[in-house]
Structure formats: structure tokens, C-alpha cells
Design brief:
Helix content: 40-55%
Strand order of the largest sheet: 1-2
Shape: globular
Structural class: alpha+beta
Order of helices and strands: EEHHH
Oligomer: single chain
Number of helices: 3
Strand content: 5-15%
Distance between the termini: 24 Å
């Protein structure tokens, strides 16, 4: 099953990201990048995050970060024996 996210931006038009086709290493690299940028995990950041006070870039980051973490979790659940 393909998992996509479409990002609308006045600067870049429409960008479609296919998380299901993204290599594991790319997903891990991008998740790590968000950990570095925000100094915490998505779970911790989500507890502090407020849509009302967020910049457009923070909104895009949190949507992308969430999709990346969900994709990573789904892959781990789908193939637990391969991760050992």
C-alpha cells in the first residue's frame, strides 16, 4: 500500500511525497534531522506544539516528521524478524 502526503506551498506549488517508496536510511536520516532541529522526539515535541503559534515551516515539519515516524513504525511492525 502506498502512503503519500501532498504539501501545498505558495513558493513551490504542490509537492507529493511517497513515504512507502522512501528507503529506510532516508527515513531514519530525516527523523534524526528533526530530533536535532527541535532537540527532542516527536512525542515530546507534539506535547508542546501549538498550531495557533506555529510558523508555516513548523507546521510542514511536524506533518512530515509524523508521516516519517508512522512509516518507520509500520515497517518495523510489518517485518519484526528482519530488524533483529
Amino acid at each position: 500500500m502506498s502512503r503519500h502526503s501532498v504539501i501545498e506551498s505558495s513558493e513551490n506549488g504542490r509537492t507529493e511525497i511517497d513515504y512507502s517508496a522512501m528507503p529506510d536510511a532516508e527515513i531514519e536520516r530525516r527523523i534524526h534531522g528533526y530530533h536535532e532541529k527541535y532537540g527532542m522526539t516527536l512525542t515530546a515535541y507534539s506535547k508542546r506544539f501549538s498550531c495557533a503559534g506555529a510558523t508555516p515551516q513548523e507546521m510542514l515539519d511536524v506533518m512530515d516528521w509524523d508521516c516519517l515516524v508512522r512509516e518507520c513504525d509500520q515497517r518495523r511492525t510489518a517485518r519484526p524478524a528482519a530488524r533483529k
